[in-house]
Amino acid sequence: MDPLNRGAGRTPADIGAGAPAVPFEAMLAQTRQAFDSVAETYDGPRGNNALIQRMRERSWYAIERYAPASSRLLDIGCGTGIDAMHFAALGYSVCATDASGGMISRATARAAATSMKDRIDWRQLGAQELNRLDGRFHTAYSNFGALNCVPDLRLVARECARLLTDRGHMVFTVIGRLCPWELGYYLLQGRPRRACVRFARDMVAVQLNQLRVWARYYTPRQFYRCFDRQFELVHTQALSLWVPPPYLVSWHERHAHLGRMLGWLDDHTGGLPLLRSAGDHFLMVLRKRH
Asked: Which residue, among 89, 98, 96, has the nearest Cα to 120 in the 3D structure?
């Protein structure tokens, strides 16, 4: 799934911090219900616009760099299947998983009429349920914050280490804790609580289609700490650091020339120390330890 991509309308993070303590099982159920409710329209601006696609192509480039041709990939949080279908078209074999039955139904319907359908194994399976998978994968990936919605990332790390081949790679795009655009945007609107929602330490309730998604926001260092026993860090890069977040795509479209300049800055400075810890998302590449 492509959780928390803000394409149009009210942003999912508008509930913010301060939600009551909820058992993890209830968090996962509420998150699944929210994504079920938007599955039929998630291919549109809510889940895929020009700024989302820009980040998506950066992750595609990283995955193709580290995944051997025609190898087997694991897609964690596949959403409506945009990534899985892209890699199937390139000749990869993909096991595409998502906790949302609505997302899986939408993805399989989109793939049914294509020549790639036999290269994709669709599974309704949450990231916290990877223990139910067997087999070996050369590369695992997860785009647009699916792992932000997982209560226990160390469990994901252990299962990915089990499923990946020796020296296999993982490529993730994760919603970051520090987004300068978001801070400035909401502070200028006089909404300091909304501006600071990413700084909550624990899982917080965020809104999607009037329902709750539970998410935790990370710095790259915090995120990697959950994987460092089984994986070594290869690369980290900020995404949408200078370019605005996807929910500000209308601003980006109105200022196309400036947007191209900001995109150049994103591509050429997003991997620098300090800067790579900021941005709407960050891209992280990990390699399985010996």
From this structure: 96
Cβ(94)–Cβ(161) under 8 Å? no
Rounded CA separation 44/64 (Å): 25
208 vs 1: CA distance, rounded Å: 13
CA gap 145, 149 in Å, rounded? 7
Rounded distance, CA 245 to CA 186, Å? 12
Q: What is the per-residue pLDDT across 192-243, written as a single tens digit (0 to 9) for each?
A: 999 999 999 999 998 899 999 999 999 999 999 999 999 999 999 999 999 9
What span, in angstroms and rounded, lies between the C-alpha atoms of 31 and 195? 22
The answer to whether 6 touches 245, Cβ cutoff 8 Å, is: yes
Length of the chain: 290
The strand pairing partners of 137, in sequence order, are 164
Greatest C-alpha distance within the chain:
51
* The three-state (H, E, C) secondary structure of 138-170, written as one string: EEEEECCCHHHHCCCHHHHHHHHHHHEEEEEEE
- Spatial separation of the C-alpha atoms in residues 2 and 9, rounded to whole Å: 16
Q: Which residues of 22-61 are buried (b: 16+ CB within 10 A; e: fewer)?
A: eeeeebbeebbbbbbbbbeebbebbbbbebbebbbebbbe
Q: What angle do CA 239, 243, 247 make, to 5 degrees?
A: 90
In the three-class reduction of DSSP (H, G, I as helix; E, B as strand; rest coil), residue 18 is classed as coil
Q: What is the per-residue pLDDT across 3-61, written as a single tens digit (0 to 9) for each?
A: 454 433 333 333 344 445 789 999 999 999 999 999 998 887 667 899 999 999 999 99
Evaluate whether 50 touches 242 at the Cβ level (below 8 Å).
no
Q: What is the pTM of this model?
A: 0.91
Residue with the two structure tokens 């309730």: 205
Instruction: Determine the pLDDT at residue 36.
Output: 96
